[in-house]
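debug: dumping io for the single-chain case to check the tokenizer round-trip. Nothing else runs in this session.
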Amino acid sequence: MNLVIEASMSEDSPLFSYMILEYDKEFISDIHENLTTIKKDAPLTFKLGDGFLKCTQGAFHTLRKQIKISEIEDKKFHIKQGNFDKTKSTFDLVDCKMHIDSGFCFFTGKTITNKVEYQSVNFDRITLERMISEG
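debug: decoded output
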């Protein structure tokens, strides 16, 4: 299963962009625990490794065949069965990181070739709880 979340690019583009990571209930639970029970004096950044995140991008009419865009707009995420094959429009990101601040977290990653950065939407405690319960 894959977790699909909305992402924005560091450059202007007419294409829709979404980050993809393998759904891992324990990983999401650990993020939730970090947000809710561990006191932080400053924002935290965790390196996740190259290829931990993938990106898929394209026109609306193309992406709606692969993912449920309306669900992502409503809940901030979509859990998709099956895998995303690497293509020109679905690719690995490098320098993948997870950022945790007080009350929210988000992911970042860059393309291999031209170093365009992608950033996910912010996730709060409630969204993480939904991810855990639906997975």
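debug: round-trip ok. The chain has one domain: 2-134.
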